[in-house]
Design a protein that fits this description.
Layout lengths: L1 H27 L17 H5 L7 H22 L3 H23 L4 H25 L9 H26 L7 H14 L1 H30 L13 H14 L2 H15 L2
Helix pairs in contact: 1-3, 1-4, 3-4, 4-9, 5-6, 5-7, 6-7, 6-8, 7-8, 7-9, 8-9
Length: 267
């Protein structure tokens, strides 16, 4: 137990070191820029504080660091000092960045989603090579074929929905390109089955919150609803579905599917 606590503390320290880059990414990546040094000054910007800029304030930086420490510590505590612990921290932090940026700007950083696709496929190849020729399976392992199919299914499914939306509603951008690339990255890292669960959870939760937002807006502003005028950031809901499928695993969802099939066949 003492070893577990020690490793957890080491993980928390590493999380604190990496956590200082979270706010930097949130400020810089909406413009698809690199970690430009000017963005380091945002928390202490006098004008930003005076005019209430959402990027100003050191408290946000401290909150991100504290969040990173907690996630890193818990990841090491539950998964050990292994690759799965790092992947766990990486997924949660990436989803945090996507959520904050998408809510604020309706943009999902390309550097994160495109990088996620590339490194997800590379990781799958490396893990497969280690397993194939070394006989060792990493603590976080996704079969190479599952990773590739997940990438194709993730990106292709939302792209298809976007095209259908354009045809049906006669409006472009029915599904944002950022959402497509984000789900493709999730598929590359997790495989095709978690992609399906991610979309189902995101659609259910997103539709619920979207409907609640429409009703609230109509009641508060005393106006009739106009179709296709209410936009919601879909990235946070994709992140929620993805994290649930990662931490909970596929077994509960497969059990639900089996129970439904049993019920349907018995009717």
């Amino acid at each position: 137990m003492s070893l577990t606590i020690s490793l957890t503390m080491i993980g928390a320290v590493i999380g604190a070191f990496l956590g200082k880059y979270i706010g930097w990414a949130i400020r810089a990546w909406p413009s698809y820029e690199k970690f430009h040094c000017d963005y380091q000054k945002c928390p202490t910007c006098v004008k930003g504080k005076e005019f209430g800029c959402c990027y100003a304030g050191v408290w946000q930086e401290r909150l991100y660091i504290a969040f990173s420490v907690i996630i890193a510590g818990l990841s090491v505590f539950f998964f050990g000092f292994a690759i799965k612990a790092f992947v766990s921290w990486l997924f949660v932090i990436a989803c945090l960045i996507v959520t904050v940026v998408d809510i604020r700007t309706f943009v999902i950083p390309d550097r994160l989603s495109k990088g996620g696709i590339l490194f997800g496929l590379i990781y799958a190849v490396i893990a497969w090579l280690i397993f194939k020729f070394g006989g060792y399976q990493l603590s976080y392992y996704v079969p190479l074929t599952d990773s590739f199919i997940g990438f194709v299914v993730g990106g292709g499914f939302l792209m298809f929905l976007g095209k259908v939306s354009e045809v049906v509603f006669k409006k472009p951008d029915g599904m944002g390109g950022g959402d497509i690339k984000l789900l493709a990255a999730m598929g590359a890292w997790a495989g095709w089955q978690p992609v399906i669960v991610t979309v189902l959870i995101a659609s259910l939760v997103g539709a619920s919150f979207g409907l609640a937002g429409i009703i609230t807006d109509c009641i508060q502003n005393h106006k009739a609803y106009k179709p296709m005028t209410h936009h919601i950031p879909f990235g946070p809901y994709l992140c929620l579905g993805f994290l649930i499928s990662f931490f909970v695993g596929m077994n509960p969802f497969m059990n639900l599917l089996n129970a439904y099939q049993f019920w349907a066949m018995g009717r």
